[in-house]
Amino acid sequence: MLRLSYWGKILAMNTRRWVRRVYEDGRSRLRRDAAASTWCNLTRSWLVELGFQEEWNQQATGAKWQEKVREAIMQQEEAEWRRRVASSSKLEFYAKWKKEYKMEEYLSTQDVRKRRTWTKMPRAAD
After folding, report:
1. pLDDT band (50, 70, 90) for residue 122
2. Which residues contact 51 (CB under 8 A, 6 or more apart)?
3. pLDDT digits (tens, 9 = 90+) for 67-116
4. Cα–Cα dist 126/112, whole Å
5. Higher pLDDT, 100 or 44
6. Taking CA atoms, which of 14, 59, 89, 109 is between 20 and 30 Å from 53?
7. What is the Cα–Cα distance from 102 to 53, expressed in whole angstroms?
8. Contact at 8 Å (CB) between 30 and 38?
9. End-to-end alpha carbon distance in the chain
10. Which residues does 45 contact at the CB level (< 8 Å), separation at least 6?
């Protein structure tokens, strides 16, 4: 997320700034060699993976770029989480009551003993 947010900031920079110049040089190397090992190559592949191919092609992020990136990453992470839970026999019971991909409140408890106890307790039916 930090990389893609930073990419949006780079695009907003004046073209005379060094960061922007280095970025543009990386892009030109990527155009010459699609397999070039550059910061731009990994950034592009992540953008494409998240469905931001058009933003890469246009080299424009638009309004609320960071929110769009955060939402796309959260959707991707949730889909991966659901896939892992569904494919694990050990998590079968867990999958029956854990419907949302979110951090459970009890995990932020500072008391380690309480947190361990709560983790072992079955949750009441909703």
Report:
1. low
2. 72
3. 999 999 999 998 888 888 888 777 777 777 777 777 777 778 888 888 78
4. 26
5. 44
6. 14
7. 28
8. yes
9. 34
10. none
